[in-house]
User: Fold this.
Amino acid sequence: MVTKKPVTAAFLAALSQEVQPFLRRVRATCLPGAEPPAWEFTRGPNKGVTVVSGMGEDAAARSVAWVFERYQPQGLISLGFGGAVTPELTPGAVVLGETYWRYDPDTQTLEELPAPAWPHWSAALVERLRTAGLPVFRGSMITTRGIIHKAGHAALLHHLPHPVLDLETSAAALAAQVRTLPFLALRAITDVAAEEIPDFLKEAARQGQTPSGAAALAWLAADPRRLAVLLRLWGRSRLAAKHLTQALDAVLEVW
Assistant:
């Protein structure tokens, strides 16, 4: 029988770019041979584990299962980049999930998921982030099976408070609900409401893979005018990762 290691929190991200600045800040230790890739860290009195799941609900569900096989977390946090559906969410804005949804673009069905209760420290977290000057919203996390063309679906989603699209939150939220664990979802905006995700990222998400540099270069080679889109997305990703790092620091301070 495996003895589970107690930790304050388990952090789940889809891409290493989303958490690398945080891992550097806390001097996290990479776990050799871990699959999915995982790091342990200590921050003050708190110990934690961060896992990079890969893109999509299935990958997130497998990574959550991996965490619970080896650790005994006091809480679960799903984090990463997200896509805005409504114009008030600007690049780098941090959205904390209050409600959780799954959206099927084929049937245009929007299903609300059982919502784990907000942890008791959430209000303090919002206040701390706003004091730090971050644009912070309480919003609706909408998980889809793949990256969707927002222009074709926004009208069905815009009535939700501060809606954000992602690919993984629902799997983590359901796992936390089953285990009655405190749960929080954090998404930092990389693409605003009027912007669509490049096709090479959609294909990577469809295959459940990490986006590759080769795929990005091939997409760019097909039309060099796309360079501006790539540079914008790169800059937005850096800003979002920076704000996620600040948010995770604040989580560990107010826990």
Notes: The radius of gyration is 17 Å. The chain has eight helices and twelve strands.
